[in-house]
Specification:
By secondary structure, the chain is an all-alpha fold. It contains 9 helices and no strands. The chain has helices at 2-5, 10-40, 44-61, 64-69, 73-92, 100-123, 135-159, 161-168, 172-188. The longest helix is centred in the first third of the chain and has 31 residues, at 10-40. It is globular.
Length: 191
Protein backbone atom coordinates (compact mmCIF):
# COMPACT_ATOMS: atom_id res chain seq x y z
CA UNK A 1 0.00 0.00 0.00
CA UNK A 2 2.87 2.37 0.77
CA UNK A 3 4.16 1.79 -2.77
CA UNK A 4 0.83 2.94 -4.18
CA UNK A 5 0.64 5.91 -1.80
CA UNK A 6 4.19 7.07 -2.54
CA UNK A 7 3.66 6.61 -6.28
CA UNK A 8 6.68 4.31 -6.63
CA UNK A 9 6.98 1.97 -9.56
CA UNK A 10 4.15 -0.38 -8.68
CA UNK A 11 4.81 -2.74 -11.57
CA UNK A 12 8.47 -3.27 -10.61
CA UNK A 13 7.61 -3.80 -6.95
CA UNK A 14 4.92 -6.37 -7.79
CA UNK A 15 7.35 -8.24 -10.06
CA UNK A 16 10.04 -8.37 -7.36
CA UNK A 17 7.58 -9.49 -4.68
CA UNK A 18 6.22 -12.20 -6.97
CA UNK A 19 9.75 -13.45 -7.67
CA UNK A 20 10.54 -13.66 -3.97
CA UNK A 21 7.22 -15.33 -3.15
CA UNK A 22 7.71 -17.93 -5.90
CA UNK A 23 11.21 -18.72 -4.65
CA UNK A 24 9.99 -19.22 -1.08
CA UNK A 25 6.94 -21.28 -2.12
CA UNK A 26 9.11 -23.46 -4.32
CA UNK A 27 11.57 -23.99 -1.47
CA UNK A 28 8.81 -24.98 0.99
CA UNK A 29 7.25 -27.33 -1.56
CA UNK A 30 10.63 -28.91 -2.33
CA UNK A 31 11.41 -29.46 1.36
CA UNK A 32 7.99 -31.05 1.98
CA UNK A 33 8.31 -33.25 -1.11
CA UNK A 34 11.85 -34.41 -0.31
CA UNK A 35 11.00 -35.09 3.34
CA UNK A 36 7.82 -36.92 2.41
CA UNK A 37 9.34 -39.09 -0.27
CA UNK A 38 12.24 -39.91 2.03
CA UNK A 39 10.34 -40.60 5.25
CA UNK A 40 6.57 -40.67 4.71
CA UNK A 41 5.69 -41.73 1.17
CA UNK A 42 3.55 -44.62 2.47
CA UNK A 43 1.53 -42.30 4.71
CA UNK A 44 -1.69 -41.04 3.05
CA UNK A 45 -1.39 -37.78 5.00
CA UNK A 46 1.81 -37.03 3.09
CA UNK A 47 -0.09 -36.91 -0.19
CA UNK A 48 -2.65 -34.59 1.34
CA UNK A 49 0.10 -32.27 2.56
CA UNK A 50 1.83 -32.42 -0.82
CA UNK A 51 -1.39 -31.45 -2.62
CA UNK A 52 -1.86 -28.61 -0.15
CA UNK A 53 1.60 -27.33 -1.10
CA UNK A 54 -0.19 -26.19 -4.23
CA UNK A 55 -1.68 -23.49 -1.98
CA UNK A 56 1.82 -22.14 -1.38
CA UNK A 57 2.39 -21.91 -5.10
CA UNK A 58 -1.01 -20.37 -5.86
CA UNK A 59 -0.53 -17.87 -3.01
CA UNK A 60 2.92 -17.02 -4.35
CA UNK A 61 1.58 -16.01 -7.76
CA UNK A 62 -1.56 -14.36 -6.44
CA UNK A 63 -1.84 -10.62 -6.95
CA UNK A 64 -4.72 -10.21 -4.48
CA UNK A 65 -2.55 -8.05 -2.23
CA UNK A 66 -1.67 -5.74 -5.12
CA UNK A 67 -5.35 -5.11 -5.85
CA UNK A 68 -6.04 -4.57 -2.14
CA UNK A 69 -3.19 -2.05 -1.99
CA UNK A 70 -4.79 -0.20 -4.90
CA UNK A 71 -8.12 -0.42 -3.05
CA UNK A 72 -9.71 -2.34 -5.91
CA UNK A 73 -12.06 -4.52 -3.89
CA UNK A 74 -14.61 -5.92 -6.36
CA UNK A 75 -12.23 -8.31 -8.17
CA UNK A 76 -10.87 -9.52 -4.84
CA UNK A 77 -14.37 -10.26 -3.54
CA UNK A 78 -15.32 -12.06 -6.77
CA UNK A 79 -12.13 -14.14 -6.65
CA UNK A 80 -12.68 -15.16 -3.03
CA UNK A 81 -16.27 -16.19 -3.80
CA UNK A 82 -15.16 -18.18 -6.85
CA UNK A 83 -12.34 -19.89 -4.98
CA UNK A 84 -14.62 -20.88 -2.11
CA UNK A 85 -17.33 -22.11 -4.51
CA UNK A 86 -14.86 -24.43 -6.29
CA UNK A 87 -13.56 -25.70 -2.96
CA UNK A 88 -17.08 -26.30 -1.63
CA UNK A 89 -18.06 -28.20 -4.77
CA UNK A 90 -14.98 -30.39 -4.46
CA UNK A 91 -15.45 -30.94 -0.73
CA UNK A 92 -19.05 -32.03 -1.26
CA UNK A 93 -17.83 -34.77 -3.59
CA UNK A 94 -15.70 -36.35 -0.87
CA UNK A 95 -17.53 -39.44 0.34
CA UNK A 96 -14.89 -41.10 2.52
CA UNK A 97 -11.67 -40.18 4.32
CA UNK A 98 -9.46 -41.59 1.56
CA UNK A 99 -10.81 -38.91 -0.77
CA UNK A 100 -9.50 -36.02 1.35
CA UNK A 101 -6.74 -35.22 -1.18
CA UNK A 102 -9.51 -34.55 -3.72
CA UNK A 103 -10.96 -31.86 -1.45
CA UNK A 104 -7.47 -30.39 -1.06
CA UNK A 105 -7.05 -30.47 -4.85
CA UNK A 106 -10.38 -28.65 -5.20
CA UNK A 107 -9.12 -25.99 -2.80
CA UNK A 108 -5.91 -25.60 -4.82
CA UNK A 109 -7.93 -25.48 -8.07
CA UNK A 110 -10.20 -22.80 -6.62
CA UNK A 111 -7.22 -20.70 -5.59
CA UNK A 112 -5.59 -21.11 -9.01
CA UNK A 113 -8.81 -20.04 -10.76
CA UNK A 114 -9.10 -17.04 -8.44
CA UNK A 115 -5.46 -16.16 -9.09
CA UNK A 116 -5.93 -16.35 -12.85
CA UNK A 117 -8.96 -14.06 -12.61
CA UNK A 118 -7.02 -11.53 -10.51
CA UNK A 119 -4.13 -11.56 -12.99
CA UNK A 120 -6.57 -10.73 -15.79
CA UNK A 121 -7.99 -7.88 -13.71
CA UNK A 122 -4.56 -6.47 -12.84
CA UNK A 123 -3.03 -6.86 -16.29
CA UNK A 124 -5.60 -4.45 -17.66
CA UNK A 125 -3.94 -1.63 -15.73
CA UNK A 126 -0.41 -3.04 -15.43
CA UNK A 127 0.40 -4.99 -18.60
CA UNK A 128 3.55 -7.05 -18.96
CA UNK A 129 3.92 -8.19 -15.34
CA UNK A 130 6.23 -11.14 -14.76
CA UNK A 131 7.95 -12.39 -11.61
CA UNK A 132 11.62 -11.54 -11.22
CA UNK A 133 14.07 -12.15 -8.42
CA UNK A 134 15.90 -9.12 -7.03
CA UNK A 135 18.28 -10.19 -4.24
CA UNK A 136 19.01 -6.71 -2.77
CA UNK A 137 15.27 -5.95 -2.69
CA UNK A 138 14.61 -9.30 -1.01
CA UNK A 139 17.23 -8.71 1.71
CA UNK A 140 15.86 -5.23 2.37
CA UNK A 141 12.37 -6.67 2.66
CA UNK A 142 13.58 -9.40 5.05
CA UNK A 143 15.41 -6.82 7.17
CA UNK A 144 12.24 -4.74 7.48
CA UNK A 145 9.79 -7.57 7.98
CA UNK A 146 11.51 -10.19 10.13
CA UNK A 147 9.85 -9.08 13.41
CA UNK A 148 6.40 -9.33 11.83
CA UNK A 149 7.25 -12.65 10.17
CA UNK A 150 8.51 -14.09 13.44
CA UNK A 151 5.40 -12.96 15.31
CA UNK A 152 3.16 -14.53 12.63
CA UNK A 153 5.01 -17.85 12.87
CA UNK A 154 4.81 -17.83 16.67
CA UNK A 155 1.13 -16.86 16.50
CA UNK A 156 0.39 -19.75 14.15
CA UNK A 157 2.25 -22.13 16.45
CA UNK A 158 0.31 -20.94 19.49
CA UNK A 159 -2.96 -20.97 17.55
CA UNK A 160 -2.42 -24.64 16.69
CA UNK A 161 -0.86 -25.66 20.00
CA UNK A 162 -4.15 -27.06 21.24
CA UNK A 163 -4.18 -29.59 18.38
CA UNK A 164 -0.59 -30.58 19.10
CA UNK A 165 -1.38 -31.00 22.80
CA UNK A 166 -4.31 -33.29 22.00
CA UNK A 167 -2.03 -35.42 19.83
CA UNK A 168 0.73 -35.53 22.46
CA UNK A 169 -1.74 -36.76 25.07
CA UNK A 170 -2.81 -39.59 22.77
CA UNK A 171 -6.19 -38.23 21.77
CA UNK A 172 -5.80 -38.56 17.99
CA UNK A 173 -9.45 -39.51 17.47
CA UNK A 174 -10.66 -36.32 19.14
CA UNK A 175 -8.55 -33.90 17.10
CA UNK A 176 -10.86 -33.78 14.09
CA UNK A 177 -14.00 -33.29 16.16
CA UNK A 178 -12.30 -30.62 18.26
CA UNK A 179 -10.94 -28.80 15.20
CA UNK A 180 -14.35 -28.86 13.49
CA UNK A 181 -16.12 -27.54 16.59
CA UNK A 182 -13.47 -24.88 17.14
CA UNK A 183 -13.70 -23.67 13.53
CA UNK A 184 -17.34 -22.82 14.14
CA UNK A 185 -16.23 -20.22 16.68
CA UNK A 186 -13.90 -18.62 14.13
CA UNK A 187 -16.91 -17.80 11.96
CA UNK A 188 -18.39 -15.51 14.59
CA UNK A 189 -15.12 -14.16 16.01
CA UNK A 190 -14.88 -11.22 13.52
CA UNK A 191 -18.31 -10.02 14.67
Amino acid sequence: RSVVQRQRDLSSTIERLLGLRLLLAGAVTAVVAIYGWRFASGNPTFWLVLVLCGLHLSAAISVRWALLARETMRPVAVSVFGSNAVFLAGALLVSRPGHAPWAAAAQVAGELIATAYLWVELRGSLPGLRPRLDIPFSWTLFAESWPLSLSLVLGAMLYNFDLLALEWFGRDGEIGVYAAAYRCTTVVSPV
